[in-house]
Amino acid sequence: KSPYHVLSLLIITTGLAAAGDYVRPAPGKSLYVSLAGDHSKNAPQQVHISLAGDAKMRISWITDDMTPSMVKYGKSPGNYEGSATGTSSTYRYILYKSGHIHDVVIGPLEPSTTYYYKCGLDSSPELSFRTPPVQFPIDFAVSGDLGQTEWTKSTLQHIGETGYDVLLLPGDLSYADFYQPSWDSFGRLVEPLASQRPWMVSQGNHEVERIPFIHKERFTAYNARWHMPFEESGSNSNLFYSFEVAGVHVIMLGSYTDFGPGSDQYKWLESDLKKVDRNRTPWLFALVHAPWYNSNTAHQGEKESTHMRDAMEDLLYNARVDIVFAGHVHAYERFTRVYKQQFDKCGPVHITIGDGGNREGLATRYKDPQPKISLFREASFGHGQLRVVNASHAKWTWHRNDDAQPDSMWFTSLASDSACVV
């Protein structure tokens, strides 16, 4: 293993605590997903899909050898009515060279429809995905700080059983931390789910992977492997973008790139929010990695949290964002509607869900007493489900993985509240 991987292992922290009859789980055993011994160098691996503009889907995969960047697809097995070609690329990270990363956008596609597809050569296995609906209801799965452990595997299993339409991931995917083969392992680990439903992701601190004087570029692997629809949303960076699906406008923000007034991200966010039509998309969500509100003792006072909140909170509040999801803190916490660190009936609900299963373990210590704006907090591995039922109501449920202990809440959209309409 590379010295950088060894270094990252040395800084891992773990926690184990007990509360009542429930014993908080220890960090899970790390996983590494290898290719099957007979896997062809021409065969696709690490297949994942993402939304790419109106009625389109981006298909991404990797091959060891150069093969056509082509996807054939259709609505019945073995019958491919459509085809599209795209691009391929590689990247280098110190001594590592990636496989060929293929990127193909297909469509237009019909909503709520299962498509069967092949990546690259005709000899490739047939896969399938289902497109999300264009109207309510729609189901989101939400999970941050996934990593690659036994708990990650549990989280993915639970998510796979929910019947979700789109997955939202607020940063920290593979926890490769400089050791690039772990990115390949992560792609194989999530492929069974990520090849069947669109995964919309943002970056966290573990995606930065910058080494002074050795590898100065930030987010090299993340940007190469997880191409999100930033071009389609008028952004100039894969680190911040937005998309719309079934009456919901979702904004993905970058905690680890410039966010102050005058920055590209700030100016893009201003522009994007002005384009939001709450008649067409009555729900408005935002995702960051570092939480703007946090009563856990972990990650207190970091500029990516406090400075970003100071810079951008007014924009989100004035646009009447309904929910802000975050990761980073390895626990779950749900706040009330909040603005300027106080309850505000027209502010967004902040939810931290950095409990996907990463190797560093849980953040088990909270501030005491619990702040009034913090309504529910729990340090366990879990995942979230958000069912947007109609233009005015959505149900949020967080499930603890090992015993399905839930936290559940109904939300009303701010666009449907006459007291909050702007």
TrEMBL record:
Catalytic activity: a phosphate monoester + H2O = an alcohol + phosphate
Molecular function GO labels: acid phosphatase activity; metal ion binding
Annotated ranges, domain Calcineurin-like phosphoesterase: 140-332
Signal peptide per UniProt: 1-19
Positions of the Purple acid phosphatase N-terminal domain: 44-131
Membership in a protein family: Belongs to the metallophosphoesterase superfamily. Purple acid phosphatase family.
Protein name: Purple acid phosphatase
Organism whose genome encodes this protein: Ambrosia artemisiifolia (Common ragweed)
